[in-house]
Amino acid sequence: MNQIEYENYHDTSKAYDNTRIPIGIEIYLGCFAGTNRPLLEQNILDAGCGTGNYIQALKEKVGHLYGLELNGGMLAQAREKCQNDANIQLEQGSLLEPLPYHDDTFDGMMSNQVLHHLVAASSQENFEPVHKLIKEAQRILRPQGVLVFNTSSHPQLYDGFWWADLIPEAVGRIAKRFPPIEIMNSMLKEVGFDRVGIVVPVNTVLQGENYLDPMGPLKKDFRDGDSTWSLATNEELERAFERVRTLNQEDSMVQYLETRENLRKNMGQTTFIFAYK
Ligand SMILES: C[S@@+](CC[C@H](N)C(=O)[O-])C[C@H]1O[C@@H](n2cnc3c(N)ncnc32)[C@H](O)[C@@H]1O
Questions:
Q1: For position 138, what pLDDT does the model report?
Q2: Ligand 1 pocket, 148 CB below 6 A?
Q3: Number of domains within the chain
Q4: Pocket residue to mutate for ligand 1, from 51, 77, 114, 149, most atoms within 8 A of Cβ
């Protein structure tokens, strides 16, 4: 792991897909359709592509997909999944470095739940790595190309995930790594992007079917599906486990989930920020 990375994706890569699904594909297609070339002629970059889930979901809808990913374990999963797809090209590399692509290459660039991995806890409120990435995106996008980030707002981090309430200290830690949406907006405009907007899908969750597992937090696979858990101390984890056991034993988990889900259904888990060159 590098100094900034706090989640061991080498270990979690094999089980990652058990608790993560691609979301907002219709949002991406809408954003890509707003550029100036037909979808089937477009080149799209997935920055921090992980196990390739978004690329797979889009491979029949757009011309060519490129994935850039830092972690060898995640990339190996993506390579296996994409091995028979002639229109997909994957590469290992870091979003903290100049992107290995020529100017004016892509019609669209997306990045799903990656920004918080680029920001060191100590560099909070600076978000320089994100600023640099936005500048690089501006360089490699074609005129009228679109940049889309799938991230989460701070309120979503606290109340868009039912289990976040079990580990509030860890949520506080991860929140420092998430650039607030207003800051993202300003950075995009400052770099020269136009038509900046957001879409918040309230009916969709990152963890798919497993999300509402009432025993989920007790399972490693479930916790591995969201890096917030890796920022909880052992003591905080024990406290969370105890609470889950008690809620289940006392039959109050259903009520608890309902209360938490009412919040999530209002605000969603994710915010998609788009901006055109
Ligand atoms: C939460 S996962 C999201 C993976 C994928 N985008 C998805 O949504 O399924 C974060 C990903 O960012 C990658 N990542 C972290 N730092 C990175 C960097 N500096 N450059 C490229 N990828 C990075 C991690 O290895 C991991 O695959």
A1: 98
A2: no
A3: 1
A4: 114
